[in-house]
Amino acid sequence: MTDTTPTTNPPADESPEAKAAFYQQLQQFVGLEIGPPVPAPDEVNLPMVRHLVEALGDENPIYTDPEAAARSVHGGLVAPPTMLQAWVMTGIKGPARDGDGPYHRMNELLFSRGFTSVVATNSEQTYYRYLRPGDRLTMRTVIDSISEEKTTALGTGHFVTTRQDYFDADGELVGSMLFRIIRFRPRAKPAPRPPRPAPATTHDNSWWFDALGEGRLLIQRCAACGRLRHPPGPMCPACHSLEWTSVAAAGTGTVHSFVVTHFPQVPSFDYPLPIVLVELTESESGNPIRMVMNTADTERDALTIGAPVHIEIRPAGDGTYLPFAIVDTPVPPSGATA
Length: 338
Ligand code: ZN
Known about the structure:
alpha+beta, 5-stranded mixed beta barrel, 5 helices, globular, disordered N terminus, binds zinc ion
């Protein structure tokens, strides 16, 4: 959230004609490119893929096992499609600057009518082909669309959608990402705390969230070979069966990893915000079952790798229920002597 630019607020003319004229002014920026093309710092490479799939617990061999990948429909190693953005991320330097370019000028225009606040709303990625180790990407960003004035719970403003197109060394378009923000005029009164963003549910995982709403923490189980898996997906990574069932989790595990986020801050949460990767008791040899969740009722110091946790399903706003890890802090032995 930024509220740093001084503006006239509210603007002088709020007539429909003034709004329509302003919308037309904004449209001049649609289709313009933001900044120079951004070259990926590294080519698509196995070490980065390995780090990601290990953290996610994704054991699909097409990502890390050259021989298995060679036998697959891909004929060789490929990168997880969802890593698209990661290949061009510029790290702590931040994105390339637009300078006095169209994005800057569009923002100046929005600021001039008091649309000084910004919140990211959603992102969509499209993949045109699998990336392979050795691919070297370049990203170009354009202003894809700017909406008419809309009023949301946050305030009144315009949705601005940018599109990042990713090209390979031959100039072939391999993927795109739409990234949408709203530039809005903050309400005079502080908005009530917004609800926690809803989980990103799909055809393949909504059953898992629905079960949480009924108080059940489930683990997907292959109906053919019996292998457990999480997060939910359509196909067994071991035997490729599409048939599946589920089993109830005991609701216990250990802290496999965790991060404590400080920034950027989303107003739905308290900070610092710990996020935990829990390894469930149901983990099998060579097949860890891990779930990402928030913690509750846990002292920050108790959050250590390997700490035992139990999991409670709690309301998370807007009718959503989510699992929360609670670290079972060991009680010091009462007979201890100094
Ligand atoms: Zn299976």
